[in-house]
Amino acid sequence: MRRLRVWTGAALLGVTLSACAADQIVTPDEYTRLTPGMTLVQAQQVVGDQGQPVQALAGQAHRWENADGSFAQGTFLAGRAVDFDQEGLLAEAGSKSKLKKLRKSNRR
What we know:
The chain is α+β, with helices and mostly antiparallel strands. The protein has helices at residues 2-23, 28-33, 40-47, 98-107, and strands spanning 52-54, 60-65, 71-77, 80-87. It has a domain at 28-102: Beta-lactamase Inhibitory Protein, Chain:B, domain 1.
């Protein structure tokens, strides 16, 4: 009987972990693999989700948003990503875009 209880607990834990992962469309690891120069299709393959187009001042923007409000967003011009930004995925990065961080590191 004891083995059954342990197995049931493990099964419930597995269900709980799966449910949490299902709510997360884009992970911090996936965000770090998004790079300028990618096409939208390549970015969608990294994330594993189509995401949603969002309004942009120029070009096309695409967003992958998690249930908790954290998101990754890319800006695409002429079919290629020029920048990716995030909020809530990488605590230490804040909402700085990859392009801004790259420019800052190149000034040093």
